[in-house]
Amino acid sequence: MEFAGSGLLFPGRDGGYYSNQAFNRRLKAACKAVNAPVITAHGLRHSAATLLLNERDRNLKEIQELLRHKNLATTARYTHVDRERLKGVVSDLDIPSPVR
What we know:
With 100 residues, the chain is mainly α. It has five helices and no strands. The mean pLDDT is 84.
């Protein structure tokens, strides 16, 4: 997908990558401008991973590919399982008693 003449979602002025520091400065300014809590690019990655897992039912392997993590354990640390989702997993394990 091309965005403003670049394959990047948030291209820098030269069409290349923003540095993490530059992106976080702009994100901080945007948060303050709308009186929202300040977040970082790293926090956005955690939030996106968690939303994909809990709200979009994506699996860890898909999220790992998206985030380009080499190790699935890293992706697992990025995601935070919703308690209601865990309750659903537990209820799925509710096995009826054997008939006597």
